[in-house]
Write a structure and sequence with these properties.
170 residues, alpha+beta, 5-stranded antiparallel β-sheet, two-stranded antiparallel ribbon, 3 helices
């Protein structure tokens, strides 16, 4: 079964916001014969780059945990929950991609990639929101809760790692 995802860019963001929220309200039926474990998923998940090519997502331990967010109550739509949490970037950016993926039964991941930041140290950020069904969830009314928010960045030249890393830029 093909994994479901949505990719939004800054140019098409306004036009697709409502479609993304409405279109993501129900998780597709997962393929239960998929034998990948959660740890394998973290090392093999593919993320689209600006030019449409694929880029391997790093291992979970390459991310730093974001623990300063007040998480929303469980809800039907993981994408809408991420939109609720997002903090607008106050400066021009090159592009923004938002992707919703259901990599395994009972798991949803939203990845937000912002590239071309006008910051003197950070060039790009990648934030990963991991979801699982809430304890109050039922088969007919699935509610998702955020289990972890992690982040990576790419630094400007001479300011730290040029590849995705959980390490802070200088």
């Amino acid at each position: 079964m093909t994994k479901a995802f949505h990719v939004l860019t800054a140019a098409g963001f306004a036009a697709t916001l409502m479609a993304a929220i409405v279109g993501c309200s129900q998780a597709p039926e997962p393929n239960t014969s998929d034998s990948q474990s959660d740890s394998q998923d973290a090392t093999t998940e593919q993320a689209a780059t600006e030019d449409g090519s694929a880029e391997s997502a790093p291992r979970k331990n390459d991310f730093r945990v974001v623990d300063t967010l007040t998480l929303p109550a469980p809800a039907v739509d993981p994408m809408a929950m991420v939109f609720q949490l997002r903090q607008p970037v106050g400066e021009p950016i090159g592009s923004e991609q938002i992707r919703l993926n259901y990599p395994a039964p009972g798991k949803a991941v939203v990845t937000v990639v912002i590239r071309g930041l006008q910051d003197d140290s950070v060039n790009a950020t990648r934030t990963r929101y991991e979801f699982q069904p809430a304890p109050s969830s039922t088969d007919t009314n699935r509610l998702w809760q955020i289990t972890q928010v992690t982040q990576q960045n790419k630094c400007q030249p001479g300011r730290g790692p040029q590849d995705w890393s959980g390490e802070l830029c200088n």
